[in-house]
Amino acid sequence: MPELVDMNDIERAAGRLRGLVRHTPTWSCERLSEQTGARVFVKAENLQHAGSFKVRGTFNTLLSWRECGDLPSGVATFSAGNHAAAVAYATSRLGIPAVVCMPPGAVASKVAAVRRYGAELVFTEDLPGTCHQIMAERGYRLLHPFDDPLVIAGHGTAGTELLAKVPTPDLVLVPVGGGGLISGIATAIKARSPVTRVVGVEPAVSPAVSLALRHGGPVPLPGHAISIADGLCPPFTGDRPFAHIQAFVDEVVEISEEAILPAWWHLLDATKLLAEPSAAVGLAAMLSDAVSWPADATVVLVVSGGNTSPDGLRRLAQ
Amino acid sequence: MPELVDMNDIERAAGRLRGLVRHTPTWSCERLSEQTGARVFVKAENLQHAGSFKVRGTFNTLLSWRECGDLPSGVATFSAGNHAAAVAYATSRLGIPAVVCMPPGAVASKVAAVRRYGAELVFTEDLPGTCHQIMAERGYRLLHPFDDPLVIAGHGTAGTELLAKVPTPDLVLVPVGGGGLISGIATAIKARSPVTRVVGVEPAVSPAVSLALRHGGPVPLPGHAISIADGLCPPFTGDRPFAHIQAFVDEVVEISEEAILPAWWHLLDATKLLAEPSAAVGLAAMLSDAVSWPADATVVLVVSGGNTSPDGLRRLAQ
After folding, report:
1. Size of interface A-B (CB pairs under 8 A)
2. DSSP bridge pairs for A76
3. DSSP strand E in A186-297: where?
4. pLDDT per residue over A7-30, tens digit each?
5. A318 contacts in B (CB within 8 Å)?
6. Which of A29, A98, B210, B213 sits CB 3.0–4.6 Å from A91 for a disulfide?
7. Which of A109, A272, A318 has the CB atom closest to B306's CB atom?
8. Catalytic: A304?
9. In this predicted complex, what is the ipTM?
10. What pLDDT, in 10s, does the model give residues B155-213?
11. Measured between CB atoms, which of A47, A310, A317 is closest to B268?
């Protein structure tokens, strides 16, 4: 079993990220509170640099390598979008060449973000395969989107930040794709506020983590799922996220596609924050009774990213 | 000429508003900065209680009355929406009855906000007439949407807050309807950072303040204008805003309807903040060259409100 990240790792990450990553706001939302009977807060990672939490793990990994005098000549990665944008952003800030492999159907705003930050972009159906081929050809190093302790520790800083505003929430709802974000957040929360329930939410059409929990370990999904929550459809979870989720996450619930779209509109209307649909699954779980909470509970929704362009909005609005 | 509000008034307002009104964030925006060659910040009043800056002036007025032992048995007002929502919100917090007169075509999300906070709602084509009739019948007092020194001083707290984050901006762009917001903000800015240019932006189809500046005083607009910036179409400005604008505002520019819609999308995409179209006119002025700025200038866009519902978005997206 892989070694688990701890609070020392997350605190070291927070030190490295200072000045490079935003302390995004943790806002209370009166309208969501009235509606749910809970005191609802949102941790607004859609306001993060490059549009999502992903810069946390990415900068932590690159800066750890640099501290150890171990920076590669370049990095490669694969991603549906937010990790790609974060790698493009962070490598451009640190002056490191980067190649990013994305699926041909990646969301336009995420492709645009990668281009804006200047990374080399390769479209491919075979994300890990193409990525490893490029790494072999060029001597580049993989910056994994979720299966890495430095990535998990970096993402954990979102957890310590939300606890600085809401010290002992009753429930924290976290979107789950590969599982890197919830691994980091749950590690921080169970160390600082063990009474808090940490619940992951993943699309029922792409339940990589739920499937792993049922099978006792990561297994590939039978095919590539398509969800409106495009950021939550990895082909599998990893051994490291799986170990952290087993250790620190209370439950992972699955949510239907039908529940995500109205929750996404609702989040926008109630909070005035443009999230991406993947970031609205926590609210979807609340509004569709996939999770429960005691009366007057304090609930934090982790709004993981905002990379939906006006084009995306227009399509969804039709 | 009416007496002008000063920094003492604004500081007293800030004291009254503590705990009732949000210190909304003033964020830098990398994407808007890259695009414009300025360092662009947004003052996000769309994240304010009741969805706009209007609670600042409203709470300041009600609390000043209460300090003087002069609370009326009820208040009445007229508004296209944001002031109505703010009066409904503030009176419900303070336990004061309120009647709000709105035009039949008011934006659905603003009507919903008034209903949510529990104020009595009257739809009327003759806003000031109906409002004064209700006041006479019930002995209620007018809480004016803009032509009041307490309202202007309350709105001025948005100015001191933005200066706390960006002490000497080169340019501050403020949406202009009745002129209350820019009056307060310009008063604060010229007191604390006289080198800063304060520029108002109003829809060319409803130029109440530009018309007043050309005529040397407030004059009624020839008819009721319809703009996508529904919050910036008052029938006239007031003597008090006019006096503050003459004293403290460097320029008021007019902006076409065609410039507002793309700026509104753009603001959403670049900042992840759902503004209402009225709140995007500052960015519209930048993107359509209605204002200019020196290279590397620091520019603050006052994003005045966010009361656009998903329905509004759907209409705009078509």
Report:
1. 55
2. A99, A142
3. 197-203, 251-255
4. 999 999 999 999 999 999 999 998
5. 317-318
6. A98
7. A272
8. yes
9. 0.86
10. 999 999 999 999 999 999 999 999 999 999 999 999 999 999 999 999 999 999 999 99
11. A310
